[in-house]
Amino acid sequence: MKPSKKQSGPKILASPKKTSDQTTKHPSRIPRDQEESANYHHGNLREEVLEHSRKVLEKTGVSSLSLRDIAGDLGVSHTAPYRHFPKKMDLLQALVAEGFRELASAMKLAWDHSEDPLAKIRKAGEEYIYLLLNNPRRTELMFGGEIYVSGDNLSDELRECGNEAYMGMFRIVEYGQNQLVLKKSVPTATLMMSFWSGVHGFAVLNERKWKSIQSSEEEKLSFQNEVSQILEIMIEGTRL
Q1: Global pTM?
Q2: Can you give the pLDDT of all 240 residues of the chain as single tens digits?
Q3: HSE of 20, CA atoms in CB hemisphere, 13 A
Q4: DSSP letters along 159-193, please?
Q5: What sign for the dihedral angle of Cα 182, 186, 188, 190?
Q6: φ, ψ at 114 (rounded to 5°)
């Protein structure tokens, strides 16, 4: 991947100084530069931008993400988000890193779930499926799409989070092999990819169904049973 040229966010022009006459006429008016400075320090702005961007991404897709629009939604200066994300690609990479961070946490949860190798991999499958179903547009960015074809270098944060998530899954499959429960004749990475592809494909194919049954507890329970059955079929194919 070719390194991208450095791009800087929009320049922030200093507000013109108020004349003494203007100050006298408007004694209660906050100078524009002070007002913008206050807007830049709007709480925990980076996290707020990420959280709001995630909602916009899932609701209307990546093409609808605009740092200027997000600033308006959050009630801050339209240039404020650029202090944290100089360009849109920086925001997308941060969203993807957040996704991999959550996936790594899910794999840690699966690892701690049980000492039984099959229970670990079953839990890992469940966690992955529901994480994707609840964040489908972000998952698309995580495993394909704009950030990998843009020409921009991947951030260190994104690389680190992605590797942590990958190794979380790898560790679970490797444990199953070492416990002589999963196939040893297949390389760990290949066996993991087989299982990973299966759960990913199932979640992608059932995204619409998952959305359509949210108002029915009975249908959600039926879907959960289907997930359990699918995972048993996948695990059976990886066993010794």
Answers
A1: 0.79
A2: 444 444 444 433 344 444 444 444 444 443 444 444 444 445 699 999 999 999 999 999 998 899 999 999 999 988 888 899 999 999 999 999 999 999 999 999 999 999 999 999 999 999 999 999 999 999 999 998 788 888 889 999 999 999 999 999 999 999 999 999 999 999 999 999 999 999 999 999 999 999 999 999 999 999 999 999 999 999 998 887
A3: 0
A4: HHHHHHHHHHHHHHHHHHHHTTSB-SSS-HHHHHH
A5: negative
A6: -165, 160
Identity (one letter) of the amino acid at 131?
A: L
Cα(56)–Cα(63) distance, integer angstroms: 10
Which sign, positive or negative, has the C-alpha torsion 88, 89, 90, 94?
positive
Residue 112 · residue 187 · CB < 8 Å? no
Question: 199, 129 in Cβ contact below 8 A?
Answer: yes
Distant-in-sequence, close-in-space partners of 84: CB < 8 Å, separation ≥ 6: 45, 46, 49
Q: Taking a C-beta distance cutoff of 8 angstroms, is the pair 89, 147 a contact?
A: yes
Phi/psi class of residue 79: alpha, beta or left (left: φ > 0; alpha: ψ in -120 to 50)?
alpha
CB neighbour class for 192 (10 Å; exposed up to 12, middle 13-18, buried from 19): buried
